[in-house]
Design a protein that fits this description.
The complex is a heterodimer of chains A (310) and B (361). Chain A is mainly alpha-helical. Helices cover 75% and strands 0% of the residues of chain A. In chain A, helix 7 crosses helix 8. Chain B is mostly helical and 361 residues long. The radius of gyration of chain B is 23 Å and the shape is globular. The chains are: A mainly alpha (310), B mainly alpha (361). The interface between A and B is large, with 50 and 49 residues.
């Protein structure tokens, strides 16, 4: 019995690990969307983060630089999006799509010389505790520092949005840019900052994949996780804590399908893989049906261009 | 010290010449940007760009390949232009393409070893209907449940991909195929006629051209087209005029889904000849760029589809000659859209140079 319990603990630990990139990217995108900006470039920013993290790790042999560098490159690439949507007032949807397409191409070009290089071992914390405590050990211990950060992030984000003045400013800009602007808030500056923050979190999410989760560089290795992160923000109705829960569900399905064949269940793997997407659509329908409910949750100006006559 | 004074003013009207010239500007900026990227990667930029944009179309085979790739791109983009013109963000054309391919492919397998002139038209029609029905999901959810069509249409892309994966691995896989994830090769009666021997260009190009003509007819010569344009320019005006918004949303999604489905079934009955996992190199997503680059105008879209098709071919050639990954084409596609959207700024704003002035510090 104790063996089974330990196995379940390991399974939960694995689910947590697979949900980390989703939590990071979705938490970043959540802040961006709360400021009224819809950035569909999550996938592109993640993959750029993944390759720059990995490339820096190979070149500098320093994991710290690699992680910081991946966040920085996510930030730089989101700056393109920020400049276009905020300064040149382009359409958010089209610009975000361009960012994803560009990011996937660019990462493959940069990553050409990094294919097939083995990754470096990323230090895991409390490994001895993981092995000595059954069940709870593999759940709480033996993870990378990024995982602990990711699991704290939704709570920090929640605190930031609900309890701090800056958080209030972000929400005000997202809900009514015109009135925020009348109050003397620099809408464009707030949105720029939120876009850059979102970009850096997506970069980190990508680095988690290429440095810790997979650890190596594979072309197109994010494999649609950026889109899931986007769906997750809606799934969570723009609430950071629900992002955490949603990411665990989505991560759970990923792990489940890996173990399906082993257990010998006869549900097609593809059906399980499709579940997160179908569930997101169902949740969207449920929250959107009631127009009052969606107004309460959705940043009112999401995806709309704001132009202040000077 | 002297500084250049610049004043930015909002334009009162959009100049038509700039409207169609900015895409050309965007293409030149993309070539320039691409040259810089190639230079950074250690290639001779002129050589590399030549491999990318000239070599692929310097022979008859290359030109035929260009048209093979432009055929689906143009068709999907034409459909999307109906959605985008009316402010409906269907970004799931890739899913509609795949679903159209699945339905059409299923019918083609039903007619396996079956001869008759009617086989191909039935397959094409069922593919178009498949894409149309798939596009109606986000449309109906948007009209009746107020859901965001961007996210729904996008999520459905993955559902369609996984469904295709399931079918070609499982129930539809070739019984004599040694468990390869692919169906049987369709019979000859289910294949698009090839136009010239030893080239891959097929009759699908006529379907695309006919669709371009009809879309022009609908958009510019019918009341429906007028309604679509008005709704795109101002939703309030459309409501005030009493247009049936819901019906229109469903119609534009149906048109664009049918086009994407037709493109999908055109691919599997044309160059591919069977169903497998990768029936489309993201044509559905790339067609969004085509639609924008063509300014949502049927003739513009024809030109845009040729240019974007060239980035696909260029990436293939560059992969062989420069050993760069095939994803390089996406760098160019992304850049075109970046520059195009960015240069739209010139449409709405005038940049005035007021000359040099002494800066008093």
């Amino acid at each position: 019995m104790s063996f089974d319990l330990n196995f379940i603990g390991i399974l939960i630990g694995a689910i947590m690990a697979s949900s980390v990139p989703l939590i990071l990217a979705a938490s970043g995108e959540l802040i961006t969307e709360r400021s009224g900006v819809l950035n569909l470039g999550v996938e592109g920013m993640m993959i750029i983060g993944a390759i720059s993290g990995f490339a820096l790790m190979v070149v500098t042999d320093n994991l710290f630089f690699a992680v910081i560098g991946s966040m920085f490159s996510g930030l730089i690439i989101s700056l393109i999006f920020g400049f276009l949507t905020q300064t040149l007032l382009t359409n958010h949807v089209a610009t975000g799509l361009a960012l994803t397409i560009f990011g996937i191409g660019m990462s493959a070009m940069i990553g050409k010389n990094f294919v097939g290089i083995p990754g470096k071992e990323f230090p895991l914390l409390f490994v001895n505790l993981k092995e000595s405590i059954p069940f709870l050990g593999p759940i709480f211990f033996g993870h990378s520092i990024i995982l602990y950060f990711a699991f704290g992030l939704p709570f920090l984000t929640n605190y930031f949005l609900k309890k701090t003045k800056t958080g209030l400013v972000v929400r005000a800009v997202g809900d009514s840019p015109a009135s925020a602007s009348n109050q003397g808030i620099n809408v464009s500056l707030v949105r720029y900052s939120c876009i850059l923050y979102g970009g850096s979190m997506c970069g980190l999410a990508g680095a988690y994949l290429s440095l810790i989760y997979t650890p190596q560089w594979i072309e197109n290795m994010t494999g649609g996780r950026g889109w899931i992160a986007l769906a997750l923000v809606v799934f969570a109705t723009w609430s950071p804590i629900k992002v955490l829960i949603g990411a665990l569900i989505f991560g759970g399905i990923t792990i489940l399908q890996l173990h399906m064949q082993a257990v010998g269940l006869r549900i097609p793997v593809q059906l399980l893989s499709a579940l997160p997407y179908i569930m997101t659509i169902v949740v969207l329908v449920v929250i959107s049906r009631d127009s009052r409910k969606i107004k309460l949750n959705t940043p009112t100006s999401l995806g709309q261009i704001f132009y202040k006559e000077k | 010290m002297e500084v250049l004074l610049i004043k930015i003013e909002k334009r009162n009207d959009v100049s038509r010449s700039i409207y169609f010239l900015t895409p050309v500007l965007a293409i030149f900026l993309t070539l320039f940007g691409g040259g810089i990227i190639f230079y950074i990667l250690g290639f001779n930029p002129i050589e590399a760009l030549k491999f990318f944009f000239i070599t692929p179309i310097s022979d008859l085979y290359g030109l035929s390949e260009l048209l093979v790739k432009a055929t689906p791109l143009c068709l999907i983009a034409i459909g999307l232009s109906f959605c985008f013109k009316s402010n409906n963000w269907n970004i799931g054309a890739e899913g509609q393409l795949i679903f159209g391919g699945i339905v059409g492919g299923g019918v083609a397998l039903l007619f396996y070893n079956h001869d008759g002139f009617y086989v191909l038209p039935i397959i094409l029609l069922s593919g178009a209907i498949g894409g149309m029905l798939f596009a109606m999901i986000p449309a109906i959810l948007k009209t009746y449940f107020n859901t965001n069509e961007i996210l729904v249409s996008l999520m459905l892309v993955y559902v369609a991909k996984l469904l295709l994966d399931y079918l070609v691995v499982g129930p539809w896989s070739n019984p004599e195929g040694f468990n390869f994830p692919e169906t049987r090769q369709f019979s000859e009666s289910a294949r698009m006629p090839i136009l010239f021997d030893s080239l891959r260009i097929h009759a699908g190009i006529f379907i695309t051209l006919i669709s371009v003509f009809f879309s022009w007819l609908i958009l510019y010569k019918t009341y429906l087209g007028f309604q679509i344009k008005v709704s795109g320019l101002s939703l309030k005006t459309a409501k005030y005029a009493g247009y049936k918004g819901k019906t229109m949303i469903i119609i534009v999604f149906m048109i664009s889904g049918a086009c994407a489905g037709l493109a999908g079934v055109g691919e599997i009955t044309g160059p591919i000849g069977q169903l497998h996992r990768n029936i489309s190199p993201d044509y559905g997503f790339t067609a969004i760029i085509v639609a924008f680059l063509g300014r949502l105008n049927p003739v513009g879209i024809i030109f845009a589809s040729l240019i974007v098709a060239l980035t696909y071919l260029g990436a293939e050639t560059a992969q062989i000659f420069l050993q760069v990954p095939k994803y390089t084409g996406q760098v160019f596609q992304g850049m075109i859209l970046f520059f195009l959207l960015g240069s739209d700024y010139l449409l709405f704003f005038k940049i005035k140079f007021l000359g040099l002035k002494k800066n008093e510090l």
